[in-house]
Design a protein that fits this description.
Elements lengths: L1 H17 L3 H12 L4 H7 L8 H38 L18 H15 L3 E2 L5 E3 H4 L24 E3 L4 H11 L5 E10 L11 E12 L3 H16 L5 E8 L2 E10 L16 E10 L1 H6 L7 E8 L1 H9 L12 H4 L6
Parallel strand pairs: 1-4
Antiparallel strand pairs: 2-3, 4-5, 5-9, 6-7, 7-8, 8-9
Subunit structure: Tetramer of two alpha and two beta subunits.
GO cellular component, one term: cytoplasm
Keywords: Aminoacyl-tRNA synthetase, ATP-binding, Cytoplasm, Ligase, Magnesium, Metal-binding, Nucleotide-binding, Protein biosynthesis
């Protein structure tokens, strides 16, 4: 029996040594150490041996079992190391080869314009205010001196959700909300950038969704000349120091007096060209002195406080500044268009 066990050990060792993969090792393990294997059969036949042989053969059988298990484990480790080494050799990377360039994005032209305008007005002492895009009719119209059935509401064809809820048509509601938070105490000095929505047919110069930046300054003794000074600084910083401005009378329900601001054409210098339609001037924004009714509804005493407001479209400014002829370019995500505005 002893000779049989030793022969099984040598036979198993030889098969383990010649095994080339995990499956071969598993087959050897099942063959010699499984429930139907020869070593298990020896242990089951221990009852037929004499009392003197049992402890000797039992100890030898267990020793051989453990030895085979150890050699199988060592062979498994060796095969795993060989597998890893082969994988490393097959996946070798030549670090001297040029790498793949990583494409980086750049700021959208509208984002750049808005940030430039924000930085300019922050430098003039304004802060940035924001508000909801889904707005109440009261803040969007009524608190801005536009009661229900007012004819001027037709100028802003709106997306209504209910009779009292709509997508805001301008960022002016942010001005009203901010003034109410101040509870009748100035100063209020803010700009309000954000998306606005109007029912319009999309074409080269119109969009149902667009950006707007409005400004508001309310305090004691604010005058129209203060508005002109602020807008002059804005025009010169955005379009060049040699720009002139002019204010033309206009009408907005929430300002009185109301004015449109034009700048001298930056392409022809005011002599007349296709950009300015041969007038020498380009319309940029609307503005005016805050209407007393708007001040009163926001909680300010209009006999003590006055203010000015203005509103501009970043798309229009970007189109003029960069010579863009179609507003739809801003919203189509055409990489060829956007790559023209990479920052240095």
């Amino acid at each position: 029996m002893k000779e049989k066990l030793l022969a099984l050990k040598e036979e198993a060792f030889a098969l383990i040594e010649n095994a080339s993969d995990k499956k071969g090792l598993q087959d050897v393990k099942v063959k010699y150490l499984g429930k139907k294997g020869p070593i298990t059969e020896v242990l089951r036949g221990m009852g037929k041996l004499s009392k003197d042989e049992r402890p000797v053969i039992g100890a030898l059988a267990n020793e051989i079992r453990q030895a085979i298990e150890l050699v199988i484990e060592q062979k498994q480790t060796k095969l795993q190391e060989e597998l890893i080494q082969a994988q490393l050799e097959s996946e070798t990377i030549d670090v001297t080869l040029p790498g793949k360039s990583i494409k980086t994005g750049n700021a959208h032209p509208l984002t750049s314009i808005i940030e430039e305008i924000e930085d300019l007005f922050i430098g003039l002492g304004f802060s940035i205010a924001e508000g909801p895009e889904v707005e109440q009719d009261y803040y969007n119209f009524e608190a801005l001196n536009l009661p229900k059935d007012h004819p001027a509401r037709d100028m802003q064809d709106s997306f209504y959700i209910t009779n009292e809820i709509l997508l805001r048509t301008h960022t002016s509601p942010v001005q009203v909300r901010t003034m109410k938070k101040h509870q009748g105490k100035g100063p209020v000095k803010i700009i309000c950038p954000g998306k606005v929505y109007r029912r319009d047919t999309d074409d080269a110069t119109h969009s149902h969704q667009f950006m707007q930046i409005e400004g508001l300054y309310v305090d004691k003794k604010v005058r129209l000349s203060d508005l002109k000074g602020i807008l002059t600084v804005f025009a010169k910083k955005m379009f060049g120091e040699d720009r002139d401005i002019r204010l033309r009378p206009s009408f907005f329900p929430f300002t009185e007096p109301s004015v449109e601001m034009d700048i001298s054409c930056f392409k022809c210098g005011g002599h007349g060209c296709s950009v300015c339609k041969h007038t020498g001037w380009i319309e940029i924004l609307g503005s005016g002195m805050v209407h007393p009714n708007v001040l009163e509804m926001a909680g300010f005493d209009s006999t003590v406080y006055s203010g000015f407001a203005f509103g501009m479209g970043p798309e229009r400014i970007a189109m003029l500044k960069y010579g863009i002829d179609d507003i739809r370019h801003f919203y189509t995500d055409d990489v060829r268009f956007l790559e023209q505005f990479k920052r240095a």
